Amino acid sequence: MMRRRFARQAALLAAGLLLAGSTLAAKPPQRSVQGVVVKVQDGDSLWLRTADGAPIVVRLRDIDAPELCQAWGEEARRALADLALNKPAVLHVSGRDAHGRTLGTVIVDEVNLSRRMVEDGHAWSNRSRWDQGPLVKQERMAKALGRGFHATAGAEPPWQFRQRNGRCPAP
Fold first, then answer.
1. Which of 25, 67, 126, 135 has the smallest set of CB atoms within 10 Å of its CB?
2. Which of 67, 77, 116, 119 is catalytic?
3. Is residue 101 annotated as part of the catalytic site, yes or no?
C-alpha cells in the first residue's frame, strides 16, 4: 500500500514538473529596445524613437489611464510627459495590443512608468475578469492616500467611461 501511494505521488510530481517545464519553455523571451521618448499620446501611450530613428508606438503594460476627453485625462497625459518626455528609456516588449501598438513595460531613470502612474493616481491597474490587475496594491495605496484622480469625487475608470461614451474623437 505504501509503495502504491509513493508511486502515485511520484507520478503526480513528475506530471507537474513536465507541465511546469512546458509552460516555461513556451514563454517567448522578452525583447528589450532602447530609445528616447519623443511623444506622449495620453496617460498610457507614448512614442519611443530608437537609435536607428524608427519610432515605436507603445501602449504601457498593466495600466489603463483616463481618456483624454475624460476628467483627469489631460492631467494623466501631462504626468506621463513629465516622467518620460525627451528622456532615454528602455522598452521591455511584451507583444501587441488590439490596436497594433507595441505593448510593454517602459523604464525611465530606473522607474517603471506603469507602476509610477498607478502609484501617483494617474492610472488604474488593468483589470481582467478574474482579478484586479498586477498593480492593484499600488492602486489601493494611491486611493487611500488621495493621490491624483483619487482626490476627486467620482473618479471613473476609463473602461466604464468608454462603455458609456465610446472612445474619444481623434484629435
1. 25
2. 67
3. yes
Please classify residue 29 by burial: count the beta carbons closer than 10 Å to its beta carbon, then call 0-12 exposed, 13-18 middle and 19+ buried.
Answer: exposed
Ramachandran angles phi, psi of 2, nearest 5°? -60, -40
What's at 119, amino acid-wise?
Answer: E
- Asked if 129 is an active-site residue, the reply is no
pTM: 0.81
* Burial group, residue 138, by CB count within 10 angstroms (0-12, 13-18, 19+): buried
The pLDDT tens digits of the residues spanning 126-154 come to 988 788 889 999 999 999 999 999 999 88
> Position of cell 495600466?
63
The DSSP code for 120 is T
Marked catalytic residue, from 59, 61, 77, 115: 59
In the residue annotation, 59 being an active-site residue is answered as: yes
Active-site residue, from 49, 74, 75, 101: 101
